[in-house]
Amino acid sequence: MVRASQVRSNGAVGAVIAVLLVAVAYVAAARFGFTFAFATKQVTAVWPPTGIALAALLLWGYRVWPGIWLGAFVSNATSSEPIWTAALIAIGNTLAPLFGAYLLRHLGFDTALNRVRDVILLVFLGSALAMTVSATNGVTALAIAQIVPWSAFLSVWWIWWVGDAMGVLLVAPLLLTWLANIGRDERPEGGGPELALLGVTLVAASWTSFLSSYPVRFSVYPVILWSAVRFRQRETTAAIAVVGAAAIWATTHGLGPWASGSLDLRLVQLDSWMAAFAITGLVLGAVSAEKRAARHALQTVLEQKQRSVDTLQRALLPARLPNRAGLQCDALYIPAEREALIGGDWYDAFELPDGRIVFSIGDVTGHGLDAAVTAERLRRGIFTAAFQAEDVAEILFRAEIALQSELDAPATAMVAVISGDLSTLSYANAGHPPAILGGPTAPVRLLHLGGVPMGVRTPIRAKTHTVALERGAVMLFYTDGLTEFARNIQRSESAAMQAVSMLIDDPSIKHPAVFVQRSVMGSHRPTDDTVLLVARLT
User: Fold this and answer.
1) What is the pLDDT of residue 57?
2) HEC letters along 398-460
3) Sign of the C-alpha dihedral, residues 54, 143, 34, 242?
4) 115: closest CA among 171, 169, 174, 177?
5) Whether residue 25 sits in one domain with residue 165
6) What is the torsion angle, in degrees rounded to the nearest 10, for the CA atoms of residue 403, residue 407, residue 413 and residue 416?
7) Of 6, 393, 454, 513, which one has the greatest count of Cβ atoms within 10 A?
8) Average pLDDT value for the chain
9) Looking at residue 7, which CATH number applies to its domain?
10) d(CA 114, CA 97)
11) Closest by alpha carbon to 22, among 57, 73, 67, 59?
C-alpha cells in the first residue's frame, strides 16, 4: 500500500510539474507572438504557443491540458481584454490542440515524423483543420466583446488561423523530433563535418534570401533539400526554424521579399511561403527516413536469410573430412557475394571399408533451393555408388542413372579415389574443371579434363585415369567460382598452381584451402559459389 501511494504521489507531482512547464512555455511564447500584432492587439500571424501546446499533448498526454488553458488565459488576460473574454479565448486555444492531438493519436501518428503519412496528418489535421477551432472561437469572443467589429470577422479570422496553423507547422515538428527521438538509434547519412558545412551554408543562404540587398528567397531551398536527404528530421526541423526566424526578423524590420504593406499582410505572405518551404523539407525528410528504414529492414532480412542459407548449406555438406595417418584434408565453401542464395556447389570426402578415400566435387547450374537439393542428391548418389563399384567412371555413371529423371539442370562432377596405401589416385571427370596435382619431385599440373556434364541427355563418357602419388603430394579440387571470378581462367589457374607448389614446399602452412583461395582471389569475394578441397599427403 505504501509503495502504491508513493507511486501515485510521484505521478501527481510529475503531472503538476508538466502542467506548470507547459503554462510557462505557453506564456513566454505568447509574449513573443504578441509583438507581431498589428491591426488587432490580440491577433497575430505569428503564434508559436499552438505548436508548443500540440507537441505537449502528443508527448505527455491529455493530462497537460490545464497548463495550456492556464497559459492561454494569462496571456490573453494581460492583453487589454475583459477577463471573461480571456477565459473564453483560452477555452478555444485549449480545445484546438486537444482536437488536433485526438485526431493524430486516433490515426496512429508517430511523433518522430519519419513517415510521409505523419507529415501529411500533421499538416492537414493537426495544423489546418484543428486550428479552425481556435480561430473561430477567438474571433467570435473578440467580436462579442466589441474588440473587433463583426464586419472584420473574416479578415481577422484569417490572420488568427494563419498564425495558429503556422505555429503548429513550425514549432511542433521541432519539439517533436528533438524530444521524441531521444534514445533512438538513428544515424544520419551525413557526418559531423558535413553538418557543420550545412550550418554555415544555411546561415549564408538565409542572409542572402532575407537580409541582403538582393533577396533571393528560393536560395534556401537547396539547403533544406540537402538537410532532408542527408540528415534526420531533427536537423531538418532545426534548419526550417533557423530560416523561419531569419525570415520573420527581416519581414518585421522591412527587409527581404516581403518589405511592403502592413505588418499583418507581410507576415501572412511570409507564412504562405514558409508553409510551402516547411512542408517540402518535412516531406522530403520523411521520404529519406522511410528509405533509410526500408534499407535497414532489407539489410536485416538479407542477413537473416544469409544466416539461414549458411546453416542450410552447412547441413548439406559433410560434417567432417577423413582423418587418418599420412593424409590431411581441408575444405572451404564460399557463397556468392552477389546474392544471399544457397548454391548448387558441393563437395564430399569419405573413407570406404577397404581403406580407400573417395573425394567428390561438383556444381549444379543455378542457385536456390532446387539447385541445392539436386546437388545433395548427386552427392548422396555418388556416395552410394562408391560402395557398389570400384571403377571411378562407373561411380559417376551409376550416380547419373540413379538421378536421371531428377536432373532438371546440367551439373558438372568429378570423383577421385586414393588407394588404401595412398600410392595412387584414380579419377573421372564429367565436365568439371580439372584438378591440380603436384609433388616434391613431380611438377604441378592440371589433371586430364574429359567427359560431358550430367543432365544434358547425353552419355557423360567419363573415363578413369590413374596417376601415381608420392609423399608430400598435394591435390586441389575446386569449382569454377575459383577460376572465373576475374573472368581470366588461365591466370586464375596459374595462380592456383603456384599456390599448390607453395603448399608442397611448405607443409607447415595451416588451412591450405584458405591459403589457395587468398592466393587466387586476394581480398575479393567470388561472384559465384566457390568450393575448394585440398588433400595433402604428409
Assistant:
1) 96
2) HHHHHCHHHCCCCEEEEEEEECCCCCEEEEEEEECCCCEEECCCCCCEECCCCCCCECCCCCC
3) positive
4) 177
5) yes
6) -10
7) 454
8) 87
9) 1.10.1760
10) 21
11) 67
